[in-house]
Specification:
Length: 212
């Protein structure tokens, strides 16, 4: 199976030395890439800047920085993929203008105008073919289930893995996580707090062999 995964944060430039980003470390997406490789799948990993080693044996590794670059890479790779897993923490906003020279400080406040980035998941959801499986992630601090189910529907996901952020010992930057995995046919699976590596194996086995 051809598996396409995105992982990590994006960086949205303010000027040549500054950017807006988020706390994603890429650990969950990289763990899923490694689990898929161990199962013998051909894995393409599109990754924002992270400090993890590139897994051995990938079919392709596509490093990107911005949400726009990630959108381009994902749309290009999507037609060849059977399973697409969207683990990246894509910035929702980017500065309207990226200054060509370093912004100088002055005494007053600085206002940054931000514009929406492309919702990559939404774009891929619209392009999905019947035989492609699209899996999204949802990181929420509130109303986890309601938000996750709404996102799955809006973005045409077949599965959504919901994780609560803001709790200690899990989520962003942690080696561990707990997930609730929802299928678009209404089934749900609780994946207990454990290492992201073990979680990745469990997640893939549920998605690939949902009847077992
Ligand atoms: O940001 P949101 O909570 O809607 O993210 C849910 C899913 O959408 C995740 O799988 C994430 O990778 C994806 N996403 C995306 N492009 C964005 C924002 C989120 O692909 N601009």
């Amino acid at each position: 199976m051809n598996v396409l995964i995105n992982a990590g944060p994006t960086r949205e430039s303010i000027d040549p030395v500054r950017f807006i980003t988020n706390r994603s470390t890429g650990k969950m997406g990289y763990a899923i890439a490694e689990a898929a490789l161990k199962l013998g799948h051909a894995v393409t990993l599109v990754s924002g800047p992270v400090s993890l080693p590139v897994p051995d044996g990938l079919a392709a590794f596509i490093p990107i920085e911005s949400a726009a670059e990630m959108a381009g890479a994902m749309k290009q790779a999507m037609p060849g993929a059977d399973l697409i897993i969207l683990c990246a923490a894509v910035a929702d906003y980017r500065p309207v203008v990226c200054s060509r020279s370093k912004l100088k400080k002055s005494a007053g406040n600085l206002f940054l105008e931000l514009e929406r980035t492309e919702d990559i998941a939404l774009s891929l959801g619209k392009r999905k073919r019947g035989n492609q499986i699209l899996v999204g992630f949802a990181a929420e601090t509130d109303d986890l289930e309601t938000n996750a189910l709404r996102k799955m529907k809006e973005k045409n996901f077949d599965w959504i893995a919901a994780n609560e952020v803001g709790k200690p010992g899990r989520g962003f930057a942690s080696d561990n996580n707990a997930l609730t995995l929802y299928a678009s046919d209404g089934r749900r699976f609780q994946l207990e707090l454990q290492s992201k590596k073990r979680l990745a194996v469990e997640l893939l086995s549920l998605i690939l062999h949902p009847g077992e």
